TrEMBL record:
<keyword id="KW-0675">Receptor</keyword>
<feature type="domain" description="Protein kinase">
    <location>
        <begin position="320"/>
        <end position="596"/>
    </location>
</feature>
<dbReference type="Pfam" id="PF08263">
    <property type="entry name" value="LRRNT_2"/>
</dbReference>
<protein>
    <recommendedName>
        <fullName>Protein kinase domain-containing protein</fullName>
    </recommendedName>
</protein>
<comment type="similarity">
    <text>Belongs to the protein kinase superfamily.</text>
</comment>
<dbReference type="InterPro" id="IPR050994">
    <property type="entry name" value="At_inactive_RLKs"/>
</dbReference>
<keyword id="KW-0812">Transmembrane</keyword>
<dbReference type="GO" id="GO:0016020">
    <property type="term" value="C:membrane"/>
</dbReference>
<feature type="transmembrane region" description="Helical">
    <location>
        <begin position="240"/>
        <end position="264"/>
    </location>
</feature>
<dbReference type="InterPro" id="IPR000719">
    <property type="entry name" value="Prot_kinase_dom"/>
</dbReference>
<keyword id="KW-0597">Phosphoprotein</keyword>
<keyword id="KW-0547">Nucleotide-binding</keyword>
<feature type="binding site">
    <location>
        <position position="357"/>
    </location>
    <ligand>
        <name>ATP</name>
    </ligand>
</feature>
<dbReference type="InterPro" id="IPR017441">
    <property type="entry name" value="Protein_kinase_ATP_BS"/>
</dbReference>
<keyword id="KW-0732">Signal</keyword>
<dbReference type="GO" id="GO:0005524">
    <property type="term" value="F:ATP binding"/>
</dbReference>
<dbReference type="InterPro" id="IPR032675">
    <property type="entry name" value="LRR_dom_sf"/>
</dbReference>
Length: 612
């Protein structure tokens, strides 16, 4: 330490000399204003008035920048704008200098998939706090400014018309993890980027020449294709191809083995466990598993059907059907019943029902009424007697969101991709919003969780198990519905539409992180998902919260961040701070909208780039 001292001192001197000179150089350029929310608002308005856009932005000075402007995120104390996300809103034209570049607290700027062109103003790339810059799929041209924020973590300028050299100042971006420059017109040599954190590099389809610098040798050949790069390209290529071939064939072999073993297992293990508790002659069965054991002889025809139900079976058929226990839910046990002719239904046997017949019937009417929506699992029929309460609904074979998210992670698993997760989230939100609007202000789902979101083959979500809390003493037991229950519910013992919103927020977090809200492994210190996510996000490790299975997809990071913001709004501790369900639907639709806008335009663009 001591022997190094003189050198360090010299270094410090040199650095301070540099700092002093750069201050002198920069002084006349930096406007001497200290930014605040007013100046941020003005800069945004300047931008919006200078750049035409197809989708209307609701930016006007009447409403709060921080809570209502589309695409704008502020810091916690709402004093500065820290993120702008306007993907696919049809912005067209050049970005004027002294507009966005004046937002000197900005950390994230996403203007991807618009029609922006012209030079990229250097006051944007040099915003000192800027961490992520997403400008892919526009038509910017000219050179990239050489002054780049030292905080940059993600730089995506792909699918534009940038030209000139890749600026050597990129070498100084020690925090850079993602650099995407593919499909531009860059020329010259690839700079020697010895960046410790760089995980993703794509320079493909430019006009670069020279050789791949040694420091970038660890990146795959697909990071560099479509350039005129010389040198040991060929050797690199052949060895890569051999490696890929070996990899692919071993994966195939593994898959064949896994498949083989699965088949073997099924053959050996199937059959026996399937048909459990066949309720023979009339349902007075002794087996405790049977759902019909409380049905009185005289009441056998009292199955109440809803609407224009296409089922033609009666209670007797139901009791005669072979039944399989599907699981013990929050309100009782669920069975799969296979009727004659192969019709399958789910029968739920409610336990601990605390209301009388009239109240029960009234609630069932409401449940039956709200069930008429593509994202809500309809109640088909019910049965009520003193000793037995049964509900009948459709059987959805594909399974639940919970099973798809958490079931058998590992080899052979087909992870749920982002598009599917987005679609499921939107469907679920629409289902709950329908339940809220159709049932009236007092009507709640009451038990929103991932195992109550059933999925069809093409990932249409269907919410189930709704409207049952008023019938049972479900809320009296704090241990039930773990992880999803809003903090106020434990005290008030009352679910509200806002507590449904909270539970839905937890479900979104579960979908984003891939983590179960509470692992019931018997440990007494389970993870509270909202608290964990908040703590990670506060430390600005946002990317760390996402499910690793999602991280390989391109262009979805900010959509995930947008969804994360919606989720965090839903799990606000104070119920009044949470959005209502129809607002949540609109916010999720906004993500989807920008995604839909994005698709065709990026495809058009690709083809226009490819054709000479
Ligand atoms: C602001 O609000 C006033 C009245 O509340 C309205 O007349 C005006 O049009 C609003 N301005 C904008 C830009 O929306
Ligand atoms: C992109 O901009 C260049 C000029 O900078 C122009 O020649 C080209 O036609 C534009 N491409 C598209 C798809 O608009
Ligand atoms: C790379 O291209 C530039 C022009 O863009 C040319 O001046 C240079 O000589 C080329 N270098 C090599 C190694 O081909
Ligand atoms: C780079 O981009 C090209 C074109 O989008 C793509 O085909 C290639 O797989 C990408 N490579 C990497 C390493 O992401």
């Amino acid at each position: 330490m001591i022997s190094k001292y003189p050198t360090q001192k010299l270094l410090m001197k040199l650095q301070s000399f540099q700092v002093v000179t750069s201050i002198f150089i920069l002084l006349p350029i930096i406007p001497l204003i200290i930014g605040d929310l007013n100046s941020d608002r003005q800069s945004l308005l300047d931008f919006a008035s200078a750049v035409p856009h197809i989708r209307k932005l609701n930016w006007n000075s009447n409403i709060s920048v921080c809570s209502s402007w589309v695409g704008i995120t502020c810091n916690d104390d709402k004093t500065r704008v820290i993120a702008i996300r306007l993907p696919g809103v049809g912005l067209s034209g050049p970005i004027p200098a002294n507009s966005i570049g004046n937002l000197d607290a900005l950390r994230v700027l996403s203007l991807r998939s618009n029609y922006l062109y012209g030079n990229l103003p250097s006051d944007i790339t040099s915003i000192p706090s800027l961490q992520s810059l997403y400008l892919q799929h526009n038509n910017f041209s000219g050179e990239i400014p050489t002054s780049l924020s030292a905080q940059l973590n993600v730089l995506d300028l792909s699918f534009n018309s940038f030209s000139g050299n890749i600026p050597p100042t990129i070498k100084n971006l020690l925090r850079l993890t993602v650099l995407r420059l593919q499909f531009n017109l860059f020329t010259g040599a690839i700079p020697d980027l010895n960046l410790p954190r760089l995980k993703l590099l794509n320079l493909s389809y430019n006009m670069l020449n020279g050789s791949i610098p040694y420091s970038l040798g660890k990146f795959p050949i697909s990071s560099f294709t479509g350039n005129s790069i010389l040198c040991d390209n060929k050797k690199f290529g052949t060895s890569a191809i051999i490696a890929i071939a070996i990899g692919v064939s071993s994966i195939l072999l593994l898959l064949v083995l896994v498949f083989f073993f699965c088949c073997l297992k099924k053959k050996n293990g199937g059959g026996g466990s399937l048909l459990k508790g066949k309720a023979a002659n009339g349902g007075r069965s002794k087996k405790p598993e049977d759902f019909g054991s409380g049905v009185q002889e005289a009441e056998k025809n009292k199955l109440v059907f809803f609407g224009k139900c296409s089922y033609n079976f009666d209670l007797e058929d139901l009791l005669r059907a072979s039944a399989e226990v599907l699981g013990k839910g929050s309100y009782g046990t669920a069975y799969k019943a296979v009727l004659d002719e192969g019709v399958m239904v789910v029968v739920k046997r409610l336990r601990e029902v605390v209301v009388g017949k009239r109240e029960f019937e009234q609630q069932m009417e409401d449940v039956g009424r709200v069930g008429q929506h593509p994202n809500v699992l309809p109640l088909r029929a019910y049965y009520y007697s003193k000793d037995e309460k049964l509900l009948v609904c459709d059987y959805i074979p594909t399974g639940s969101l919970s099973a798809l998210l958490h079931g058998n992670r590992g080899i052979g698993r087909n992870p749920l991709d982002w598009d599917s997760r987005l679609k499921i989230s939107l469907g679920t939100a629409r289902g709950i919003a329908h339940i809220h609007s159709e049932g009236g202000v007092k009507f709640t789902h009451g038990n929103v969780k991932s195992s109550n979101v059933l999925l069809t083959q093409d990932h249409n979500a269907c919410v189930s198990d709704y409207g049952l809390t008023p019938l049972t003493n479900f809320l009296a037991t704090p241990s039930r519905g773990p992880g999803y229950r809003a903090p106020e519910v434990s005290e008030t013992r009352k679910v509200t539409q806002k507590s449904d919103v909270y539970s839905f927020g937890v479900l979104l977090l579960e979908m984003l992180t891939g983590k179960a809200p509470l692992k019931s492994t018997g440990h007494d210190d389970p993870v509270d998902l909202p608290r964990w996510v908040r703590s990670v996000v506060r430390e600005e490790w946002t990317a760390e919260v996402f499910d690793p299975e999602l991280m390989s997809h391109q262009n979805v990071e900010e959509e995930m961040v947008q969804m994360l913001q919606i989720a965090l709004a839903c799990v606000a501790k104070v119920p009044d701070m949470r959005p209502n369900m129809s607002e949540v639907v609109r916010m999720i639709e906004d993500i989807r909208q920008s995604e839909l806008d994005n698709r065709p335009s990026s495809e058009d663009y690709k083809s226009s780039v490819n054709t000479p």
